[in-house]
Predict the structure of S-adenosyl-L-methionine-dependent methyltransferase.
Amino acid sequence: MPSMVARLSKVGHASSPSPLQLRFWRRAASSSSSGKKNSHKPLPLSCRQLHAAPIVVVTSNRGFGEPLSEATELGDAPAWRPAIESPVEFDQHLDRSEWRFGITKLRRHLAAEATGHVLEVAMGTGRNMEFYDWDAVTADYVPAGERNRSKLAKTGWGTKGNITDLPEMESFTGVDISTAMLDIGLQRLRQVVPHGAMEDVLPKQPSFEQLARPGAGAGSGTGVQLLCGKVRIVQGDAQSPLPTPPKSVDKYDTVIQTFGLCSVRDPTLLIHNMAAVVKPETGRIILLEHGRSWWELINGLLDRSAKGHFERFGCWWNRDIEDIVEVAKSRIPGLEVVEFQRPGWATFGTHVWVELRVRDMKPKGGQGTGAEEPRSGWLRSLGSSWLSVSTPKNGEKKD
């Protein structure tokens, strides 16, 4: 019989079903399909169930809406689920659940760290875009006086020197495998970039396939270049080599990726690709992920429903993100963990904030590069210091 949740999606998606409703509907569906009445087959449900969708649209070898294959059990991550019938519905489905579980606040903090030349991997529908600082990118559309006042406000009305050295986002490159998701991302870009900078170059209902040009994707792929190349939207698989930065630089200053390690076939390869395009020493890779908790009760619930969850959302929500990072650290020369946190209390430690950097392995004057202990701290301001976990120094795990 059709899924009860699928029926709800057809009726409307303005409000998300409660955990109790989801539990009841799934038990009812299980009872009907098995022909038994009052079936009490365990249907574990955690608060993560309501926030599974951000992981749907990461990287795969298939487009949105293509059917699942036998290979999906091995992690050939799909970007589709039966209960959400379109990218628009998928995007709207996230609004309330992301606010409820603190994802919106984390996205805002993540975007504040995006400075210099920025690459967002698996950008999906562009849910981080509204939180980026676009002032430097749109500087040509603003009078000089207004631009200087904006800089002074950011520095707390400091000195002229502070204005000159103010770190801002100089360019933005976003990459995703799904053109349907990129259509929504372009529409959101038109809405959130200030000063009307996008209104003249993007239609109200932009189509990536119509706007994309070969070679505009900073390589062999297709992409859309806007504002003289300061903004680029590229179609590509994040498990292949990532787009190169703008011609003026060799590496990105900031690489961002949200809710993707749980959906790709090889998460270590994804981290390797990001490490290959970030500036050594000064550049940062910032990940916002979800996966295993440090509570075994929660992990048991995730494990029991992992396969069904993957078949529906394209996400292995029981992956150990900390272990994935440690494996990548052991395999990628110079990769270091700068920060590892588990923010928020409502998700029982399943959300993870990771900041990485790549050390310059070239010897300088015969001096080695000493490892720095991962730091923790700013997430305490979110009221979750007692849930914060820092990766121990020299605590690498063996494969």
